[in-house]
Amino acid sequence: MTLATLGFAVRTKLADLGEATRLFLRLVQLTPAAWARFGLVRDQMFFLGNLSLAIIAVSGLFVGFVLGLQGYYTLQRYGSSEALGLLVALSLVRELGPVVTALLFAGRAGTALTAEIGLMKAGEQLAAMEMMAVDPVRRVLAPRFWGGIIAMPLLAAVFSAVGIMGGWLVGVVMIGVDEGSFWSQMQGGVDVWRDVGNGVIKSAVFGVTVTFVAVYQGFMAHPTPEGVSRATTRTVVMASLLVLGLDFLLTALMFSI
């Protein structure tokens, strides 16, 4: 690789970063306009949230099953099987709930957003809006951006709640852990602000990240079938890596406070 090629690649990436920053600031600036037409945001909350509910709930249930089994056999070695409820709850509300939900959200809702916006660009619908003096960022991107931000924490809460029920089914109903210990240990060990609150903050940050990556990739996609498919692939890859990286940073920050 020559120096000129390396310089061109670096310059291209910096230009892309600048475009992404400008678009993000534009979306934040359009927050009052997006909420002024709440019907558009509500429709996107249904499209991104309600239509993703099935995969989130089923995945949360099976994750709870696995946590119940693994947690019981691990705690049994130390005679602490009664703390199974606490282990399941903390694992879900702190880490697995926000992270796994964000990854599933990127795979289902993020790709749908990118493909939808990319096809609108390929079909020249966004250009037609500009010809009619309609800002496509205000009309198309902003409602989808805020719909995803709102839907993501709600889906993470559903994932954690269903996962806890899955852990209860395996631990209490199937294995025979004392039900009173299961719930009392959970109630006494889970702090609303430190544990649940940190999970809510994580899910909100992940919602901003995944939704912005999806709308940006769709908006900047090349207006061809190949360009839209590549943008959809980039959405899943970039959003997943950003979620995992941000999870480490947020966890380190929250435990240091």
Write the layout of secondary structure elements.
Layout: H1 3-29, H2 31-36, H3 38-48, H4 53-76, H5 84-122, H6 125-131, H7 136-175, H8 179-189, H9 192-219, H10 225-256
Question: Could you explain the architecture of this structure?
Answer:
This protein has 257 residues and is mainly alpha-helical. The chain has one domain. 88% of the residues lie in helices and 0% in strands. The protein has ten helices and no strands. Helix 1 crosses helix 7, helix 4 runs parallel beside helix 7 (136-175) and helix 5 (84-122) runs antiparallel to helix 7 (136-175). The longest helix has 40 residues, at 136-175. The radius of gyration is 21 Å and the shape is elongated. It starts with a helix and ends with a helix.
What are the defining features of this structure?
257 residues; mainly alpha; 0% strand; elongated
Q: Helix and strand string, N-terminal first?
A: HHHHHHHHHH
- What is the radius of gyration computed over CA atoms, rounded to a whole number of angstroms? 21 Å
The shape, in one word, is elongated
Overall number of domains: 1
Q: Give the helix/strand class.
A: mainly alpha
- How many angstroms does the end-to-end distance come to? 45 Å
Low-confidence stretches: none
Largest sheet: none
> What is the beta-strand fraction?
under 5%
Query: In DSSP terms, counting alpha (H) and pi (I) runs of 4 or more, how many helices?
Result: 10
**Average pLDDT, all residues:** 89
Task: Give the tally of β-strands.
Answer: 0
Helix percent reads over 70%
